[in-house]
Amino acid sequence: MIHLRPGRLATFVAILIGIFMLLPLLAVVPVSFTPKRFLSLPDGELSLRHYRTLIEDRDWIVGIWLSLRIGVLSAGLATALATFFSLGIWMFRPRFAGLLMGIALLPMVAPPVVSALTLYFFLITLAGYNDIVAYDTMLGVVLAHTVMILPFAVVLVSVSLARVDRRMDMAARAMGAGLGARVFRVILPNIKFGVIASFFLTFVLSWEEIAVTIFITSVEAVTLPRLMWQGLRDNIDPAIAAISVVLIVIVAAAVVGRAVWTAARER
To answer: pTM of the prediction?
Structure first.
């Protein structure tokens, strides 16, 4: 097999582009160590007061915990729905498969404001019948996030299914395997990495969702992105810079860890 490696010039250009893209993110690091109560660069003195705020302030802890729960529930529900939907399209090939796929991907192409208004009126209507899955509730946010991130899960799972050889499913059916055995013992093991990738991608999308969240929450279900948005709008709290640095470190660690794991598998 021929392995193509980038030349020195291509590598140098790629490094420059990477640095150019990362500089705006790195600018928030010194701001997070400012001793002042407003966003500013530290002037000879560094302070961890805003990092302590993330631990001591109950609002930040509640927002982070709520975003984690919403992200896990939304990603799990979206991944499950996308998996069964994509399996149905792949296995049964319905006549209107293209139309069904278009409907599933509709939230991806609709303007976020339109989706937010639609979900707002929908959850307000549900609030007239219950107070669990409704406006400004955790499960209401989960439902809204699931609608918004579902198309991305459908795309990932469908791409994984497109790489599966149909002859394996045909062979399992010819040997007498039922629908459940074919799905859980033949097909799903071959697309497990696509399903896992779908979960992590949709979790990230739910974690950072703000446009729809602003419309469907008020004072009860305050997620981390909404809390950060409120801090920027009201008083520009430097704790926002601190939580931004924490999130950057977590994402960087995850990316590096995945790269190391991938390299170890290839070796």
So the answer is: 0.84
